[in-house]
Amino acid sequence: MEQWRIRVNPTKSSQVTFTTRREICPPVNLHNTHIPVKKEVKYLGLHLDEKLTWKTHIKAKRRQLELKLKNMSWLINTLSQLSLDSKLTVYKTILRPIWTYGIELWGCSKPSNTMILQTFQLKMLTMISSAPWYVSNQTFHDDFEIPYVTEVIRINTNKYKNRSTARSNQTLFNPSVERRLKTVMAERLSPIAKLQ
C-alpha cells in the first residue's frame, strides 16, 4: 500500500479469517493500529461470514426485501388497482434484482438458506394474485412463468460459467498450472531467505 500510495483508514477496516478450521488468526496491525476481528463483514453489497455459508447475506437480503415491500405494499397489495401484469413487472424489476445480486457467489449456499428467499417469492406471488390459500406453489410458478429460486441460481451460474470459459486466461481452467499466489510469494520470500 505504501509503495502504491494507497491510503487505508485503519479505523474503518476489519479482519475476517475465511476458514472452516477453529484456529485463531494472529492479530493484524495497520500503521500501528490494531484491526478489529469480526465474524462477518459487508463488502460491495455482499455479507461475507467467516465460513462463507451465506446465511447472513441471505437473511440481510430478506430483511431488505421486507422493508421494500412495506414501502410498496400500497402498489401491489390485494386492494391495488394495478393490473396483474403491472404488479408482476414491479416484482421483476424492483424486488427480484435485490435478491439476485451476487447470485453467482451465494448460489452455492445450502437449500435451507435459499428457501428463505423462495418463501418470500411465494409470499409475493400470493399477494400479487390475491389467490386463495389452497393454490399450489407450482401453479403460481407455472401461470406467472416465474422460475423457482433454485432455477434462477442454475440459470445465472450457467451464464457466468459460459462467460468465464470464453476467457483466454488458462489459469482458470488448467489445474496443472502452478498457482499464481504461490509463485508470487516464493519470488518475494527468496531474497529474504538469502539474507538469513
Spell out the blueprint of helices and strands.
Blueprint: E1 29-30, E2 33-34, E3 40-43, E4 46-49, H1 55-76, H2 84-100, H3 103-106, H4 111-129, H5 137-144, H6 149-165, H7 180-195
Antiparallel strand pairs: 1-2, 3-4
Helix pairs in contact: 1-2, 1-4, 2-4
What would you note in describing this structure?
The protein has 196 residues and is mainly alpha-helical. It has two domains: 1-38, no CATH class; 54-165, no CATH class. Helix content is 53%, strand content 6%. The protein contains seven helices and four strands. The chain has a two-stranded antiparallel sheet. A hairpin with a 2-residue loop joins strand 3 and strand 4. Helix 1 runs antiparallel to helix 2 and helix 1 runs parallel beside helix 4 (111-129). It is elongated and about 60 Å long.
- N-end to C-end Cα span: 25 Å
Number of helices: 7
Number of domains: 2
Overall, the morphology is elongated
From the helix content, strand content and strand pairing, which structural class follows? mainly alpha
Can you count the beta strands? 4
Query: Roughly what percent helix?
Result: 40-55%
* Proportion in β-strands: 5-15%
Q: Mean pLDDT score, rounded?
A: 83
Low-pLDDT residue spans: 191-196
Side-by-side strand order of the widest sheet: 1-2
Gyration radius, in Å: 23 Å
Describe the structure in brief.
The protein is mainly α.
Give the key terms.
196 residues; elongated
